[in-house]
Predict the structure of Diguanylate cyclase/phosphodiesterase.
Amino acid sequence: MSLVFARLSHCVSECDTIARMGGDEFAILLAESQGSDEAGQVAALILSTLAQPFFIESQELFISGSIGIAFFPHDSANLDELFTYADTAMYSAKHKGRNNFQCYDHELTLHVTERLSLGAALRYACANHELQLYYQPKVQLKDGRVVGVEALLRWWHPVLGMLTPDRFISIAEETGLIVEIGEWVLKTACQAAVDFNRDVAASFKVAVNLSCRQFLQNDLAATIEAILKTTGCRGEWLECEITESLMIEDNPQVANTLEALRALGITIAIDDFGTGYSALNYLSRFPIDVLKIDRLFINHIDTDPCKVGLVKVFIALGTNLEMQIVAEGVETVSESASLQKLGCGLAQGYLFGKPQPFDVLMTTLSL
């Protein structure tokens, strides 16, 4: 921290003030700032300075910073409010990928207020039975047969109505509620899998999305094994979907958990493939069974040669690694035909069915 303080000192003038607020946070008062342009220049200089390596006990270390800026008296003439607004802008910078600066505006306060309100209500969502799983069919392209579903979480907020995960999952992850909610999702999905698989010849899989926090905050494999036993669900009926970001961390705990899930007979799928990281070596290092190609590459594949080329590579890559290939977000017959021609085996999307509650979907399936 003393080295960081020294570098900050070189970025400001003698009449400016630097204070450590605790932990790894600092506050800087620019006494003679002429406005947002000058403050932005200072912030950019700080980020550039912090990006240079630190040498501690012969070790080369790198750090980055996230900076929030609030202006007196434009944003507020009250000191406490200015600190709060700068802090709000700083967290906005963190949410935008870190290593950047953001200036406060009123919309940020509205955004933060909404997130706090949702976070408070989310704590009671499980107990109040406000969560519900919807299921979207996954089909074989060659004959249109439904071979599984993906479980998608919905929150029936008492005031706002039905909310999709993009409105609240990041809040659940920040607050740690994702572990409790994730366990509820797994239990509910496994119970549904038991019902889906009554009197069927082939295994009907239910896919569930897992977050990074679930992998790192508890013994996920043991939790899922207990849920399988409690619900009577067989491992082969469950598919766990993870993202590329989880793989890129190269955390031994992640690899061990995936191996343990595989030992239970559970299928492992990479979700939204192609939108994350380019380090593809994880595909051979981790026990992955299914490659789900993101909808970004599927939409208009029937008219876009570039997307055809990329998807062709994805399919060849997955096939050579003995993985099943699933195309996400298929919306037209023409897209479906293009995918089938490229050798894609499975697909899901509005063409085959929108996400529906369990009871509604069961009335339309012929298993």
Observations:
- The first strand starts at residue 17 and ends at 22.
- The mean pLDDT is 90.
- The first helix runs from residue 2 to 9.
